[in-house]
Design a protein that fits this description.
Strand content: 35-45%
Radius of gyration: 27 Å
Number of helices: 4
Low-confidence stretches: 96-119, 121-134
Shape: globular
Distance between the termini: 40 Å
Length: about 700
């Protein structure tokens, strides 16, 4: 049996004490079950803020093997996977906690009979920490991975229960978003029934007693019992997100990111009758991106929130349910939480801080300190970071160091030539003459981007835009290659701009409004620009006349349509839509948009035409590049999909080139990595007041 709280391993009637770091290595291996854990992940988890070599990890593994009387050549407990890492060969089985004086049970031993292999009591070690913490709590770190086949693909939200024993979070795959629960006394993650289709943009909130979770699906506020049962629908809160659940069945609401109105006021919701009332007489000129991330203080009468600005100079403010005014607390900060015994946590450009705060005086009593040394996954414009905290538990997700690889591949995916792998690229486009490559480059740490052009022959990059957009730059070559039309969030929304394809790169505004717009293609004759216009997080295909005239929708539908491309003859448009409930590939007639045909079944993205228009390509949810050959005839008849090759990475892309070649933009690492959970986090930092 393993007891992390005592750093001991008991085997064959003998108890051995091991070094704390060796125990942390063992706990980390247990969190991954029988999966291989790389050396890099183990070092990152156990030695978070310290540089160590592989030799230090190797010594810890050797110490563990001695304690288990394990053999390297014929391991029974810890296996070395050459050039990959290590894995645990026996399961970590939870056992019941030790009986306390208040609940004696002398007639029944607390250690259950051994069934198979060794009983590893990692979960109970955590449980004992939570229920009967020692005088000097020991810090425990472990990693939460998404379930197999699913990813963490959004920045937040993740929420720890007020009692610090559970974590609720979102994951996604081609079928959509799902809600999951991780109990800290268990090594498994479980799906919450009824959480399918829950919108991460609309938030999560725990009940004060840590039993229920509020979430939003299609504008309806729902409540689920984490002890089991079917979720119930409570209220209609269209356009709002749930931020915090306070006493007396009151809930703080703020505007949803799926809403077109960034200045919608925060509201107080009464769950008894679903009535709402505005919280603040907000200063719209001061916070042009609205107010969000409200959270109750323990008294249930005051709350923290963030005032958001388009320039990302956000503020943390303190409000009261009895007043329409509020007070500035911290400048250049957002996403606040209060946590006992008296600290306000907040994010600043993705870095997590805590500052001592007196509830009785409602003021700060000390200086802020940085809690996590690494930058978290965050949204700069939205003022949100992927973290949550309770008195004894902290969960966060670090910003990944990402790069993509741009390369040329043949018809079976063989890499022919690497063009570049020094940045994160978006929507690469080859110029009409095939000599230059247009792509957005993202600064992951600053959350900004610009358009760049790569000269393939001379192997040099040239910057073509200088706005440092708060989102991705998405560019399209004109048909003659003389200019570039692109979408960028220069201010609050993605608008359309045009810039010459040669110096001087002076941009002009083509279309500006309070709706996001993304260019995708030109008609073959160059007379119309096809773009996506987003309303309430739903995209429609629109056309802009390039010789003057008003833009108009190709077809407005209830579905979310994205990534439209014209066939070379201009008769058809291939695009993606979630009409079927998952995102699939469709083809629509340009002349009669009501005529549409489904191409993929089971999910698809990144649709592209061959240069002769005789084939359609797309990527499946499991990253396979498929080829479809439409049958000849007056109407469109799609053929059966054929597998070509795989392109790893959930955000990888490609473009079709002449002579059966492809330009591949391969994502080399997941955009959002695993979550780190720290129990008894306060022992790891100096939070002196």
């Amino acid at each position: 049996m393993v007891q992390p709280s005592l750093n001991t391993i008991s085997l064959k009637g003998r108890t051995r004490r091991i070094e704390p770091k060796a125990m942390e290595v063992l706990v980390c291996l247990a969190q991954y079950g029988d999966h291989v854990v790389s050396k890099e992940q183990l070092i990152k988890t156990v030695w978070t803020d310290t540089f160590v070599t592989d030799d230090v990890l190797t010594r810890c593994i050797s110490d563990l093997r001695r304690a288990f009387e394990d053999e390297t050549k014929e391991p029974r407990f810890i296996q070395t996977i050459p050039k990959r890492g290590y894995r645990l060969l026996v399961p970590a089985v939870p056992v019941s906690p030790l009986p306390t004086e208040s609940t004696p049970n002398p007639s029944r031993p607390w250690v259950k009979p051994l069934q198979v292999g060794l009983l590893l009591a990692f979960a109970v070690g955590i449980s004992v920490y939570l229920r009967t913490p020692p005088q000097r709590p020991v810090v425990m770190r472990f990693v939460v991975q998404p379930p197999p086949g699913r990813v963490f693909d959004e920045v937040g939200p993740l929420r720890i229960s007020p009692d610090g024993t559970k974590l609720v979070l979102f994951t996604s795959d081609a079928r959509g978003k799902m809600l999951w629960l991780r109990r800290f006394d268990s090594a498994t993650i479980e799906q919450l029934p009824g959480g399918e289709g829950a919108d991460p943009y609309d938030g999560l909130a725990w009940s004060p007693d840590s039993r229920y979770v509020l979430f939003v699906t299609a504008g309806k506020l729902r409540r689920t019992d984490t002890a089991g049962g079917v979720p119930e629908t409570l209220c209609e809160i269209q356009g709002m997100s749930v931020d915090s659940w306070g006493p007396n069945e009151t809930v703080l609401l703020s505007r949803s990111y799926s809403s077109d109105n960034p200045r919608a006021p925060m509201k107080l919701l009464d769950l008894a009758d679903c009535s709402t009332k505005p919280l603040l007489d907000a200063d719209r000129s001061r916070y042009d991106w609205g107010e969000k991330w409200a959270s109750f203080l323990p008294d249930g009468k005051h709350y923290l929130y963030a005032g958001l600005r388009i320039d990302r100079q956000h503020d943390v403010r303190l409000g009261s349910l009895s007043s329409e005014s509020s007070e500035l607390q911290i400048h250049d900060a957002s996403d606040p939480r209060y946590v006992e015994p008296g600290y306000i946590f907040f994010e600043r450009r993705g870095y997590l801080f805590a500052q001592p705060f007196s509830l009785s005086q409602l003021r700060f009593t000390g200086n802020p300190i940085q809690i996590v040394s690494h930058q978290l996954s965050y949204g700069g414009l939205g003022g949100i970071a992927s973290y949550d905290v309770s008195r004894n538990a902290l969960a966060y997700q670090e910003q990944q160091d990402l790069t993509h690889k741009l390369y040329l591949a043949d018809s079976i995916g063989k890499e022919l030539e690497v063009l570049d792998s020094s940045s994160v690229y978006t929507t690469p486009r080859m110029s009409p003459d095939g000599k230059k490559l247009l792509t957005g480059k993202i600064n992951v740490r600053e959350h900004s981007s610009d358009l760049w052009v790569y000269d393939i022959e001379h192997q040099v990059w040239e910057k073509t835009t200088f706005e440092a957009s708060k989102g991705d730059h998405l560019g399209v070559w004109s048909r003659n290659g003389a200019s570039i039309v692109y979408g960028a969030a220069v201010n609050a929304h993605n608008n359309l701009y045009r810039v010459p394809a040669h110096p001087p790169y002076k941009a002009e505004t083509l279309l500006e409004s309070n709706l996001d717009k993304y260019p995708t293609d030109f008609t073959p004759d160059g007379r119309f620009l096809l773009y996506i216009q987003a309303t309430n997080e739903k995209g429609d295909l629109w056309l802009m006349p390039m010789e003057g005239g008003k833009s108009f929708p190709l077809a407005e539908t209830p579905s979310d349509e994205q990534d439209g491309r014209f066939s070379p003859d201009g008769r058809w448009i291939v695009y993606t839509s979630d009409e079927s409930g998952i995102r699939d590939i469709y083809v629509r007639s340009f002349s009669t948009p009501a005529d549409q045909y489904r191409i993929s079944w089971g999910g698809g993205r990144v649709p592209r035409w061959s240069l002769d228009g005789r084939k359609i390509y797309y990527l499946t949810p499991d990253e396979k590049l498929m080829e479809v050959t439409p049958q000849p005839g007056p109407s469109f008849k799609p053929g059966a999909p054929r597998l070509l090759f795989s392109i790893p990475g959930e955000n990888s892309e490609y473009e079709v080139l002449p002579h059966g070649k492809f330009l591949v933009n391969e994502q080399l690492a997941p955009w959002h990595g695993p979550l780190t959970v720290v129990l008894n986090w306060a022992s790891a930092v100096n939070l002196g007041k």
